[in-house]
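Q: I'm a student working through a structural biology exercise. My instructor gave each of us a protein and asked us to get a predicted structure, then write a short paragraph describing it. Mine is Metal dependent phosphohydrolase. I'm not confident about reading structure output yet, so if you can add a plain explanation after the tokens, that would really help. Here is the sequence I was given:
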Amino acid sequence: MTQQEKNAVVRSLVDEMAARDPAERGHSDRVAVYAVATGERLGLTDARLLNLRYAAALHDIGRALGSPDMKQYPFEGFERLGQIAFLRPAAKIVLFHRERMDGSGYPAGLAGEQISMESRIVGACEAFDELLFGGGGADLRSGAFDQRVVDALMEVQRVIQPVGSR
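A: Happy to help. First, here is the predicted structure for Metal dependent phosphohydrolase. I'll explain a few features afterward.
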């Protein structure tokens, strides 16, 4: 499968999410932009950045496709993305993007270094976008988020214009 074909698959999944919840497109696009810029700032390799981009764009797929349980939707997203071979690494990121450094997240209650850097990035970028566009979101300076990730996000967000609208 070419990179162009992979990108088309990801875009079709984002389109599917947006068909159910129109606000999801802007949110997914913004989180992906924030996440890749943050990952670049933190020195992730190109391969890791690509999986991060996929995961960030699709992080809410379990919720957008109908999961009624907020604490279960990351697992449902993991299962959906895991059915597509090239998205399996992204599926693992999606599964744990709601975990928090202090152990207060879900679905597994992981803490600290148990959470992949990519999942930490997506989690912080999602919370940041919710603060800007959703009227909610967690305090990024709390112990719930990796402060290295938050610092990198705050540096890159100064030069990123919001993508889309919510």
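A: Here are two points you could use in your paragraph. Residues 4 and 160 are 24 Å apart (CA to CA). DSSP finds eight helices and no strands in the chain. It's a good idea to check both against the output above yourself.
Q: Great, thank you!
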